[in-house]
Amino acid sequence: MLSFYSRVLVAYDGSTLSKKALQTAVELMKQSPQAELDIATVYDVPKGLEGYGLYNEGLLKEFRAGTEKMMAKVEKDLKEKNLQNKIQTYILEGNSSKVLVDFANERDTDLILIGSRGLSGLQEVFLGSVSHYVVQRANCPVFVIK
Ligand SMILES: Nc1ncnc2c1ncn2[C@@H]1O[C@H](COP(=O)(O)OP(=O)(O)OP(=O)(O)O)[C@@H](O)[C@H]1O
Ligand SMILES: [Mg+2]
Hints:
The protein is an alpha/beta fold. The protein contains four helices and five strands. It has helices at 16-31, 57-79, 96-107, 129-137; strands at residues 7-11, 36-43, 86-93, 111-115, 142-145.
C-alpha cells in the first residue's frame, strides 16, 4: 500500500484514537522501510481565556511543557520499536485544523492518518471539528481511524 504513500502524516493530540492512528502508521512503516513518517501535534492556545484573566505567560508555558512531554514520550516509544524509517515529530502552533492542512501541503504529505474523534469526546458526532476539516480540505487521501 505504501508504495503509493511515501510520506505519511499522523495528526496526534494524545487521544486514544490518535494513538491508534499512530499505531496504524507504525504497522505501515514496518511494511515500507523507505516510507517517511511525520507526527504533528498542534498546540492551540485555548480561546476565551483572555476574558477570564487566565491568559498569562505561566499558563502558556505549562501548556507548552505538557505538549513537549507528550511528544517526547511518542519519540521514546518509537525509538524502542527500532523502525528503519525516517521519523520526525513536530509541535506546531495555531488553529489545529488549518495548521495541519497547511503543514501537509508544505511537507508534500501523501497520506494523512487521523482519529475520527479527539480529546473532546462528544460521542454523538462522528467526526470532530479537526478531522472534519482535514478530510474536507486536505489535498491528499485521509485515513480516518475509528
Ligand atoms: N491539536 C491537534 N493536533 C494534532 N492532531 C489533532 C489535534 N486535534 C485533533 N487532532 C486529530 O484529529 C482527530 C479528531 O479530533 P477532533 O479534535 O476533530 O475531535 P474532538 O476533540 O472529539 O472534537 P472537537 O475538538 O471538535 O471538539 C484526533 O484523533 C487527532 O488525530
Ligand atoms: Mg479536539
